Amino acid sequence: MGDTGAKMRGTILKVPGAGPGLLMVNGQQKPFTLEGIWKSPVAPAANMTVDVDLDASDSITSVSVVDAQQLAREQMRQLGGVAQERGREAAVIARQGLDALTARMGAVALACAVLVWVVWFFFTVASIDAGGGRMSYTFWNLIGLDFKDLESLATGGSHGFFSLLGLIAIAIPFAAPFVRATWSKYLYVAPLAYIVLGLFIMYGKEHSTFKEIAQNAGTNPFSWHLMTLIVLLMAAGVLAYEGVKKPANA
Does residue 191 belong to any structural domain of this protein? Predict the structure, then answer.
C-alpha cells in the first residue's frame, strides 16, 4: 500500500463472533474485529459489501457498510460501461461484416438489396377503399391476402409457402457472393423474378375479385400505388443488373 493507506471495497466472508471476522479485500482475506473498527449502525452480515479503510501498514482501521442505493448506482454504472464496451465491439464487428459484404456484392447492389427489403415490408403498394376508410397493404401483406375472404382483407391474410419463397428470394442476393459456382451471379435476379411473378398473380386475383364491383360501381375499390411499385421494381432490376454483369465467383 501507499504511505498514507487507502480506502477499498470489500466483502464480509465471516462475521466476528467468538473470534475475528474475515473480509475479502482486493483478493486477500483479512481478519477484523468490531470494537473500534465497525463504523455502521447496522450489524454486519455475511456477503455484505463494505468500505474498508487501511493504514500505511495495510492494517484495517475502519469498516462501514456501503449504502444500498450507492451500491446499486455503482453497479448500474458498471453495467452501463460493459454495455457500451460490448456495443462498441458489436459495432466494429458489424462494420467489418458490412465492409466485407460491400466488397463482395458491390455498394450499388447492396444498397438495392436493402432497398428491396425496406420497400417490401414498410411501404404501401396497394390499398382498398372499404367505404369507411382505406385498407393499405405492403408487398409482404399483399402476397398473403386471400382476395375472396373478407377477413383476410381486413386482417392482412396469412403467409404460406409462396410467401416463404418470397423471403428466400430477397435473402438470396446476400448469400450469392459466397456461393462458389459459375451460375451464382444469376441469384441476384431472384427478387425481380419473384416480384414480377407476385404482381402478375396478385393482379389476376384482384381483377377477378373486384371486376364486377368496378363495373357496377363505376370505380375499382382496389388501387395500386404505382410510385412504390416502380421503386420496388427498379431496385430489384438494378440489383439483377449489377449481379449479372459481375464476373462469376471463382
Answer: yes
